Amino acid sequence: MKKVVILYWAKGGNAEKAANVVYKKLGADKADLFDVESFDTSKLTDYKLAILGGSTVGADNWEDATNDNMWNRFFREIENKDLSEMTFAAFGLGNQMLYPDNFVDALGVFHDEIIKSHGKIIGRWPVKGYRFTNSEGAQKDEFYGLALDEDTEPELTDERVTRWLAQLDKEMGF
Ligand SMILES: Cc1cc2nc3c(=O)[nH]c(=O)nc-3n(C[C@H](O)[C@H](O)[C@H](O)COP(=O)(O)O)c2cc1C
Predict the structure, then answer these.
(1) Measured from the CB, is residue 55 less than 6 Å from ligand 1?
(2) Do the Cβ atoms of 165 and 26 come closer than 8 Å?
(3) 59 CA distance to ligand 1 middle (Å)
(4) Which of 51, 122, 139, 169 has CA 20 to 30 A from 26's CA?
(5) What is the residue range of 25's domain?
């Protein structure tokens, strides 16, 4: 039975912390965990679901392929593969109090890049309960993936991840 792969960037911060929460809840029998730099993209299709996690730290980070955001490299590597059989889900870290106009924008980047590779996306998440004014990571009343705010609502992360994983399980079955 194929496993789930959890990929995150950057290392050493809240994205890694949240990735570990996801990994612990799924368990080593169902999931593998890698920072995206250490992951060999030719192995992607060995997995039934790829869960991608990252933080929003400004648009430059996502648009400049020469910087150290390894998601750029990952997406350039996968854009020529046929991933139409592959399913993705994403979680994004942000701060709704300091960045209410750009809350978890990175979820929008994940969404657009996955669509470019013809992958399927599951795990949309309601915006209800969050306080922000604008987000590239949301469409109408849903984020493209799970929004996490370790800066202002760290106490909600664990439960949000539990509920989100239950939703992913319902959507595709682990
Ligand atoms: C320079 C900088 C820019 C940021 N810009 C945004 C932003 O545009 N939108 C947002 O939701 N959060 C923003 N944040 C908050 C981070 O996404 C948040 O602190 C996150 O938990 C950091 O995760 P990391 O430690 O894995 O990088 C920014 C943080 C920094 C330091």
Answers:
(1) yes
(2) yes
(3) 11
(4) 139
(5) 4-172
Atom of ligand 1 nearest to the CA of 54: 26
Q: What is the CATH number of the domain that holds 61?
A: 3.40.50.360
Q: How many domains does the chain have?
A: 1
- DSSP 8-class letter at 50: E
Asked if 76 and 31 touch (Cβ cutoff 8 Å), the reply is no
Mutate to test the pocket of ligand 1, among 93, 133, 144 (most ligand atoms within 8 A of CB): 93
Q: Is 56 in the pocket of ligand 1 (CB under 6 A)?
A: yes
Q: Is the pTM of this model over 0.90?
A: yes
Burial class from Cβ neighbours inside 10 Å (0-12, 13-18, 19+) for residue 54 reads buried
Question: Which tens digits make up the pLDDT trace of 110-149?
Answer: 999 999 999 999 999 999 999 999 999 999 999 999 999 9
